């Protein structure tokens, strides 16, 4: 429910509406469930369990790091740092670069999410991925006299009608670790003109929420509150991403070199609802499929409707190919067999990625 019991206390709430105020600048998450037994969700079951943090000499997949990464050039970007922690930014995307090994960061990052009011449904250290459950930002609730007086009793009757979950990826670099946080959101909307039934549907990812949690994670890792706010407020050079058609195939053109484009596309895929089943950085390929971000797994999502004709279908699999040439890169879609895809689905995927990279 998005109102207080919809019937009980309605008059009282209306009378005090003028005294209510949204604490929009605060974050106070409360998990929507009980602590589960952590297990690998369906979208990760095909990944092997090899040690993710061992540096191999061969091609890179989801369980290893790219050959030759140690010789990768430094990337020009808007960077702010304190000590061994810095934040990089490209457009609406931000991530942390930390001069510490991933093994030393996993537990602090895990503790950070639990201290922030979340439960973890994915906690795969060997994959470098953790994901929270769906939780509600209670700071968005009106801070009125009723809640202030009755407190927790009334809290159980209130709901914001929004749920959030966050995925965190830790990627090893020659000098330490990069940490990416991506947000996915759901909102409760009325499904009938009488407004007596509701359904949950996806809402747009929130770059500001991602930035705020990255800032708070910096504090967890030793940066002061004041310094973290200065770093998070630092600007970045404008980024350009546009959709083009080359030889009949839709693709995204980005004003970034391959190293930077590879990072940004990976974050965009996390944000926009695709699951990266595997990746081969040497070939510039992400192997992806879409898993609907539905907390109750009953309602069709935006992407389910986008890629289907209304019938229940198995998730479609694609390869996202990133190619770099100097200081520019392209992103195109291949089908499951690795052939160029110029279908309507490919055009939609390209547009979704381009919109997130702007």
TrEMBL record:
So which residues are the signal peptide here? 1-23
**Mind telling me which Gene3D superfamilies this protein's record contains?**
Outer membrane protein assembly factor BamC (3.30.310.170)
The record's listing under InterPro entries reads: BamC_C (IPR042268), NlpB/DapX (IPR010653)
- Superkingdom, taxonomy of origin: Bacteria
Q: Identify the keywords attached in UniProt to this record, alphabetized.
A: Signal
State the protein's name.
Answer: Outer membrane protein assembly factor BamC
């Amino acid at each position: 429910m998005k109102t207080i019991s919809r019937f009980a206390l309605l008059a009282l709430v209306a009378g005090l509406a003028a005294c209510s105020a949204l604490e929009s600048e605060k974050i106070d998450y409360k998990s929507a469930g009980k602590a589960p037994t952590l297990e690998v969700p369906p979208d990760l079951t095909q990944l092997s369990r090899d040690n993710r943090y061992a540096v191999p000499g061969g091609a890179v997949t989801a369980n290893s790091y790219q050959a030759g990464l140690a010789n990768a050039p430094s990337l020009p970007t808007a960077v702010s740092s304190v000590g061994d922690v810095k934040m990089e930014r490209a457009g609406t995307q931000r991530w942390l670069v930390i001069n510490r090994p991933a093994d030393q960061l996993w537990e602090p990052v895990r503790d950070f999410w639990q201290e922030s009011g979340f439960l973890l449904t994915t906690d795969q250290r060997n994959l470098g991925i953790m994901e929270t459950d769906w939780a509600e930002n209670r700071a968005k609730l009106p801070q009125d006299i009723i809640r202030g007086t009755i407190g927790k009793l009334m809290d159980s009757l209130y709901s914001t009608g929004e749920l959030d979950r966050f995925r965190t990826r830790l990627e090893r670099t020659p000098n330490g670790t990069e940490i990416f946080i991506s947000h996915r959101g759901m909102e409760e909307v009325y499904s009938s003109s009488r407004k007596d039934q509701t359904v949950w549907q996806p809402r747009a990812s929130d770059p500001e929420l991602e930035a705020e949690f990255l800032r708070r994670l910096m504090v967890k890792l030793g940066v002061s509150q004041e310094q973290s706010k200065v770093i998070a407020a630092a600007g970045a050079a404008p980024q350009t991403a546009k959709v083009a058609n080359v030889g009949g195939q839709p693709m995204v053109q980005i004003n970034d070199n391959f190293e930077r484009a590879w990072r940004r596309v990976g974050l965009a895929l996390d944000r926009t609802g695709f699951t990266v089943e595997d990746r081969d950085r040497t070939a510039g390929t992400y192997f992806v499929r879409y898993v609907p971000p539905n907390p109750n797994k009953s309602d069709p999502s935006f992407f389910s409707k986008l890629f289907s004709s209304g019938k229940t279908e198995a998730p479609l699999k694609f390869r996202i190919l990133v190619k770099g040439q100097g200081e520019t890169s392209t992103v195109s879609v291949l089908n499951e067999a690795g052939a160029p895809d110029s279908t309507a689905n490919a055009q939609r995927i390209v547009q979704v990625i381009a919109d997130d990279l702007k």
